[in-house]
Design a protein that fits this description.
274 residues, MetI-like fold
Length: 274
């Protein structure tokens, strides 16, 4: 813990990430105004004591939209990364344990998925299945699967070559038991670090899809859609684009810094090389 508190990248990333989580939790019980309430008489009002960040073209409170948008971003990130981590880790563990044609099939399938950029794959899936937060989660989650599969396989193969695993095999333990008793616990730290990085990418992907109209649909607030609605007002009222843009940037920066910090803390050799 003392070493973690001395790591500036980890501390700064942790503070920014906690701020994101705090905003999402606060939005569950309180927002300054209803993010769904439209009042055209208050449209495009500048920041005041009543509306801290002003109002948008529909008269909705911008601060409330940002708070609820944080909740939706975390929801998409957690579920999408959870899908990728669960399925990808299982496939990676299977590839490392079985080798042969099983490993080859899983890796070639992963290579095929990597041939399509993340945003392009998500756009194609949501265009076929229809726009919406559920389809966005599925699309982002599917792209995360090969990422975790490759990392899990590489890390697990290194553990399979260790002496204590060879001793377990000599003692008669099966591949499944060794995988869950010895291999998985020793690669969890690597998966956690990667999950924080993929979380940041999931937030970016959700914002991009919402910006294109394929992600979170009205009336649910979304940072990406807030940017889309503000693009025609960039020169007359730039704050409408600045606030959601800063929210996305801070969230992604915090998660990336925390991921880098975790990597350094887990493997101090990386910190010494920097």
């Amino acid at each position: 813990m003392r070493r973690a508190l001395r790591h500036r990248s980890f501390v700064l990333g942790g503070v920014l990430t906690l701020a994101l989580i705090a905003a999402a939790l606060v939005s569950l019980v309180w927002t300054p105004w209803s993010p769904y309430e439209i009042d055209m008489a208050l449209k495009l009002k500048p920041p005041t004591s009543a509306h801290w960040l002003g109002t948008d073209p529909l008269g909705r409170d911008v601060a409330s939209l940002l708070l609820v948008g944080a909740r939706n971003s975390i929801l998409v990130g957690v579920i999408a990364v959870g899908i990728g981590l669960t399925v990808g880790a299982l496939l990676g563990l299977l590839a490392a344990a079985r080798r042969g044609w099983v490993e080859e099939a899983i890796m070639r399938l992963s290579d095929f998925t990597f041939a399509f950029p993340a945003i392009l794959s998500a756009i194609m899936m949501t265009a076929v299945l229809g726009p919406g937060i559920v389809n966005s989660i599925i699309a982002i989650g599917i792209f995360n699967i090969p990422v975790f599969a490759r990392i899990t396989r590489a890390s697990a193969k290194a553990i399979w070559a260790r002496e204590f695993v060879l001793a377990s095999r000599a003692a008669g333990k099966g591949a499944t038991r060794i995988t869950f008793e010895h291999v998985l616990p020793n690669i969890l730290s690597v998966l956690i670090v990667q999950a924080t990085i993929q979380f940041a990418l999931a937030i970016l992907a959700e914002a991009a899809l919402s910006y294109l109209g394929l992600g979170t649909q009205p009336p649910q607030p979304s940072w990406g859609r807030m940017l889309n609605e503000a693009q025609t007002l960039m020169f007359t009222d730039p704050r409408l684009a600045i606030f959601p843009g800063v929210a996305i940037a801070i969230s992604v920066l915090g998660l990336n810094l925390m991921g880098d910090g975790l990597r350094d803390l887990i493997d101090p050799r990386l910190a010494r090389k920097r």
